[in-house]
TrEMBL record:
It catalyses: ATP + protein L-histidine = ADP + protein N-phospho-L-histidine. It comes from Cupriavidus laharis. CDD domains: HisKA. PROSITE patterns: HAMP, HIS_KIN. Its main location: membrane. Residues 1-26 form the signal peptide. This is histidine kinase.
Length: 456
């Protein structure tokens, strides 16, 4: 069953053209047969009226010469097959004259003036000399049928030649007529994932314009809902920073004033909880920024210095955890925003440190083709767990502290940049570990489409 509108229209028009062609052929055959009969009857009548005076003269002259051969046959000038045969009878039915190929069996004895049809011939009788003689002329019906068939075949050949041209014309007409719809679909497909601006519909057919209106209305509602959600997430995380910082300061001051070790330990637990809340609020702000889609910069930047700076920071803070950095000799200019790229790398390295095997190095590899991979040793994760790790607040089977937002933030930024995030466990070529790969970072060689977003 055809699902394509273009295919359905083309098939319907082709079927209609075929039906019309058959109807035209049938009508042409009917008209041709009628016209052939009319023209042949007219030719029979005209021939009979021209032959009758000649026949009368021949009969009168023969009577004057005393020729008693009443069934005189007209000799042929040269041998040939007669299409029309004729005979002349008197009012008593006696044969007076006939053409050389005339078969008297085809002429009924009681033939009346005018046209008569038998099983094999069309006959016309023309009386003369006040009805004392009658000239009968006959034409085989097979001749007429042959003429009709030849004319019908000529029309059929024209129709057969016309059909391919008609089919191509229908296909072009349908394709041209649906071009605005294809452009409309192409403009939707070419949009960024966060581009919710109204669709252009000025070239759309009247029948399709309501679809564009409905899609625009849906995108407007979706844009408002997403903007409200992002605004709530960002504002909530931002508003939490100040009271959390104040609570931390008061907790640290309170811990210094505690008289006993037991009370100081309880205050330290509160401090750790506030630090965790602070990290969660920071991650929520990062997630809001990532989901807002503003991850492309105004100009391409080399990603190598960003990676080197982040690795140096980690080496300075966590000197006991080695990092193996593999960078290409050539620059890797990309349209991704350096801050967004730094958030991606920091989250991936923090996850590798937090969940990787202690004392084992974390590997970071950047290629000139725009592929970044971060790998670490550790337990092998099942496939169903890998699928869940990129969702917000989802964590694997681990005892390490965390919010479950790191990979969700990475996935949102990567998706906004038009790249692909892949998780593999174990690491290819290893017996254990996890490898996170980002493929298709937008390089400077291909200008990415800037994404339009609503208010966040």
């Amino acid at each position: 069953m055809l699902r394509s509108l273009q295919g359905r229209l083309a098939a319907a028009l082709v079927a209609g053209l075929a039906v019309l062609s058959l109807a035209a052929a049938a009508a042409s055959f009917y008209v041709l047969r009628h016209e052939v009969d009319r023209m042949s009857d007219s030719a029979l009548q005209e021939t009979a009226q021209r032959l009758l005076p000649l026949a009368i003269m021949d009969i009168v002259g023969r009577d004057a010469d005393g020729d008693d051969d009443g069934s005189r046959r007209i000799a042929a000038v040269r041998p040939h097959d007669e299409l029309l045969t004729y005979a002349v009878r008197d009012d008593r039915g006696s044969l007076l004259l006939r053409s050389h190929d005339a078969d008297m069996a085809i002429f009924p004895p009681d033939l009346k003036a005018g046209f008569t049809s038998t099983a094999s011939h069309r006959i016309y009788a023309e009386p003369g000399l006040q009805g004392t003689i009658s000239l009968m002329i006959a034409e085989p019906l097979a001749t007429r049928r042959h003429a009709v068939i030849e004319a019908a075949l000529a029309v059929a050949r024209i129709l057969i030649l016309f059909l391919p041209v008609g089919l191509c014309g229908i296909w072009l007409i349908v394709r041209t007529g649906l071009r605005p719809i294809r452009r409309f679909c192409g403009s939707i497909a070419a949009r960024g994932q966060n581009d919710l601006t109204p669709l252009e519909k000025k070239e759309l057919p009247t029948e399709v314009a309501p679809i564009a209106d409905a899609v625009n209305d849906l995108m407007a509602r979706l844009d408002r809902a997403l903007a409200a959600e992002r605004s709530f997430t960002a504002n909530s995380a931002h508003e939490l920073r100040t009271p959390i910082a104040a609570a931390l300061a008061q907790t640290q001051r309170l811990m210094a004033e505690m008289p006993s070790a037991a009370m100081r330990e309880r205050v330290q637990n509160v401090e750790r909880a506030l630090h965790t809340l602070s990290r969660v609020s920071e991650r929520l702000m990062q997630l809001a920024k990532a989901e807002n889609g503003r991850v492309l910069g105004d100009a391409p930047q080399d990603l190598r210095p960003v990676l080197e700076l982040i690795v140096e920071d980690f080496r300075r803070v966590a000197s006991a955890k080695p990092i193996q950095l593999d960078l290409p000799d050539q620059p890797v200019p990309s349209w991704i925003d350096p801050d967004a790229f730094a958030i991606v790398v920091r989250n991936l390295v923090e996850n590798a440190f937090k969940h990787g095997a202690p004392g084992k190095p974390v590997g970071i590899v950047l290629s000139v083709t725009g592929t970044l991979s971060v790998r670490n040793h550790g337990p092998v994760l099942p496939d169903d767990e890998l699928e869940r790790l990129t969702k917000p607040f989802e964590r694997g089977a681990t005892t390490a502290k965390g919010s479950g937002l790191g990979l969700a933030i990475v996935e949102a930024i990567v998706r906004g940049a038009g790249s692909v995030l892949t998780l593999r466990s174990p690491v290819p070529g290893w017996q254990d570990g996890l490898q996170v790969t980002i493929e298709g970072l937008p390089l400077a060689s291909a200008r990415p489409m800037r994404e339009k977003t609503g208010p966040a």
